[in-house]
Specification:
This is Calcium-dependent ARF-type GTPase activating protein family. It holds the Pfam family ArfGap. GO terms for molecular function: GTPase activator activity; phospholipid binding; zinc ion binding. Keywords: Calcium, GTPase activation, Metal-binding, Zinc, Zinc-finger. This protein has 330 residues and is of the alpha+beta class. It has nine helices and 13 strands. The strands form three sheets. A six-stranded antiparallel sheet has the order 7-4-13-12-11-10. A four-stranded antiparallel sheet has the order 6-5-8-9, with no helix packed on it. Strands 2-1-3 form a three-stranded antiparallel sheet. Helix 3 packs across helix 6. The chain is globular. 34% of the residues are buried.
Length: 330
């Protein structure tokens, strides 16, 4: 047997195991551009996994736009692996490159013609027609996460009156007003009902809603302000049943990926100068708790995101939230 067929095992050692873990995420098991199954190619600098047909089109764009590598046949260098892991895969990349995909626009399918496939890929990556206009000037060699980091840490002036704000900017990139709207069909933890409340965690911050007595479909409509650190993780939430005589019982949990919101907010700056529009999206996959895709929108000069979650590790229960971006200057 040719040694060629042993190379997949060879590349998945050490640092490249991160690439394999990224490949195994459900949204990376289909082509980022046409949805074809089991992609065996990738664009290292863009950070997406591709089928053979789409990879051929990417290769024709040139390595400055798309550096195409085979998952199984090419030797991956550490910077290429770092670039893929940094982007996070198809869902995150598409939330940027397809943020302005026109309503009703049909992406190519796995059986699309070469012409249809080429037109879409050129529009998406070379012409960048579906990006926010100001992002189109960013070099393809710089990831969007790097772009966010550079722009969110620019000097904002050294005057004494701005010193506190400058310190905050170094530690935080902004804040979120998290509105816990309602729960639906929550799990029973008492005899016939539950007394639910929600706990939110972001970094070292922790907040809690009020307790709703004997209510499996509670409406909270409570808003909490949480600062978003430079090195942020997911917004974690847990639902509990309050009990006076014993430890509170867990009623499910979920996580909210903040990347689509934070990336969109930092890219657009002041949303009040724009009309209502969609500027980002968090895609529903088998690896997250989303009930449906969650879009990031500018609404009446505010950046908002509605999130509907299926609670995890519990027999039933949904939770609806609304996120609103708040700049450090507000």
């Amino acid at each position: 047997m040719s040694g060629r067929y042993h190379r997949p095992d060879r590349i998945f050692t050490g640092k490249s195991r991160k690439l394999k873990e990224l490949m195994l995420k459900s949204d990376n098991r289909t082509c980022a551009d046409c949805g074809g199954p089991d992609p065996k190619w990738a664009s290292a600098n863009i950070g997406v996994f591709l089928c053979l047909k789409c990879s051929d089109v990417h290769r024709s764009l040139g390595p400055d736009i798309s550096k195409v590598l085979s998952i199984t046949l090419d030797e991956w260098e550490d910077p290429d692996i770092d670039s893929m892991v940094e982007v996070g895969g198809n869902s995150y990349a598409n939330s940027i490159y397809e943020a302005f995909l026109p309503q009703g626009y049909k992406k190519p399918r796995p059986d699309a013609s070469v012409e249809e496939r080429t037109n879409f890929i050129r529009s998406k990556y070379e012409l960048q027609e579906f990006l926010k206009p100001s992002l189109r000037i960013v070099s393809n060699k710089m990831s969007f996460r790097q772009y966010d980091s550079v722009n969110s840490t620019k000097s904002i002036g050294a005057s004494p009156s701005m010193k506190k704000l400058e310190e905050d900017t170094r530690e935080f990139v902004g804040a979120l007003n998290v509105k816990v709207i309602k729960g639906t069909n929550l799990a029973v933890r008492d005899i016939r009902s539950s007394d639910p409340y929600v706990v939110l965690n972001l970094g070292h911050q922790k907040v809690q809603t009020t307790v709703k007595q004997s209510d499996l479909n509670p409406v909270w409509d409570e808003v909490f302000k949480l600062k978003v650190p430079q090195h942020y993780g997911p917004l974690k939430l847990q639902v509990y049943d309050h009990d006076f005589f014993s430890a509170d019982d867990i009623m499910g949990e979920a996580e909210v990926d903040l990347q689509p919101m934070v990336t969109s907010a930092l890219a657009f700056g002041d949303p009040s100068v724009f009309g209502d529009m969609q500027i980002g999206k968090w895609f529903k996959t088998n690896d997250n708790a989303l009930i449906r895709d969650s879009t990031v929108n500018i609404v009446d000069g505010k950046i908002k995101q509605e999130v509907s979650l299926k609670l995890q590790n519990v027999e039933s229960g949904d939770l609806d939230l609304e996120l609103e971006w708040v700049s450090l200057e507000e």
